[in-house]
Amino acid sequence: MTIKVFCDFDGTITEGDNIVSLINQFAPPSIRPIKDEVLNGTISIRKGVETMFSTIPSAYQKDMTEYILSNTIIRDGFHDFVQFLDSEDYELTIVSGGLDFFVYPILADYLPIEQIVCNRTDFSGETVKIHWEHSCDEQCENDCGLCKPSVMRRLSSAEDKIIVIGDSVTDLQIAKQADFIFARDFLKEKCEELSLPYEPFNDFYDILQSLTKKVI
C-alpha cells in the first residue's frame, strides 16, 4: 500500500486564488460575473476559465507573470510539509487547475516539475489560450478542464490510500473519492454537508500535526 497525496494549488498552497486575481487585474470588468457562474455550477470550470482568459491579450504575459510572482504568498508550513512527505515515502502530486506560466515558477523551490500537474498556456495568438491536456476520462462528465479525479485514477491504484488537500469547487469531485481530506473554505462546507472524512486546516502545520498522528 502506498499513501498518495493529491494537493490543490490556488487557495491551498497559496493564500489567494491566482486565477481570480489575474481575472480581476487583467480581464475586462464585463467578464467577471463568469466567476460566479463557475462557482455556482451554472457553467463548467473549463468553459468559464477558457472564456475569461480568452479576453486577455497575450501581450500581457510578462505583466501577468510578474504580478503573480510579486503577490503570491505561500501558506505557512508548506516546505516542512513537503519534506515530511518525502521522509515518510508518501507520494505527493500537486494537481492544479492553474496555469503553467505561474504554477511552475512559484513551486520551483519546493519540488520537481514531475510532481506538478496543471494546464498549459499558449501566448502565441492575440489572446491567451489554454490547452486542456488533463481533461476528463470516460468516468467523468463534469467538463472539468483539468480533471482531478481522472489524474488521480491515472496515478494511483485500488490498493493505494488517497489523501486530498483542497479548498474549492475544483477539489470536490476528487475529495469524494479520497480516503481522507484536509479542507478549507468551500470544500470544508461540502465535506460537512456530505459527511466526508475530513479535518479542517489553516496552514500546513495543521496538516503535519494530523499526519504525524497517522490519521490514515
Automatic annotation (TrEMBL):
UniProt pathway: Amino-acid biosynthesis; L-methionine biosynthesis via salvage pathway; L-methionine from S-methyl-5-thio-alpha-D-ribose 1-phosphate: step 4/6
Catalytic activity: 2-hydroxy-5-methylsulfanyl-3-oxopent-1-enyl phosphate + H2O = 1,2-dihydroxy-5-(methylsulfanyl)pent-1-en-3-one + phosphate
Keyword Protease assigned: no
Enzyme class name: hydrolase
EC number assigned by the record: 3.1.3.87
GO term, biological process aspect, one: L-methionine salvage from methylthioadenosine
Source domain of life: Bacteria
Pfam families xrefs: HAD
InterPro entries reported in the protein's UniProt record: HAD-like_hydrolase_phosphatase (IPR050849), HAD-like_sf (IPR036412), HAD-SF_hydro_IB_MtnX (IPR017718), HAD_hydro_PyrdxlP_Pase-like (IPR006384), HAD_sf (IPR023214)
PANTHER family (UniProt xref): PHOSPHORIC MONOESTER HYDROLASE (PTHR28181:SF2), UPF0655 PROTEIN YCR015C (PTHR28181)
Family: Belongs to the HAD-like hydrolase superfamily. MtnX family.
NCBIfam families cross-referenced by the UniProt entry: DKMTPPase-SF, HAD-SF-IB, PRK09552.1
Purpose: Dephosphorylates 2-hydroxy-3-keto-5-methylthiopentenyl-1-phosphate (HK-MTPenyl-1-P) yielding 1,2-dihydroxy-3-keto-5-methylthiopentene (DHK-MTPene).
Name by which UniProt lists this protein: 2-hydroxy-3-keto-5-methylthiopentenyl-1-phosphate phosphatase
Species annotation: Gottfriedia endophytica
Name of encoding gene: mtnX
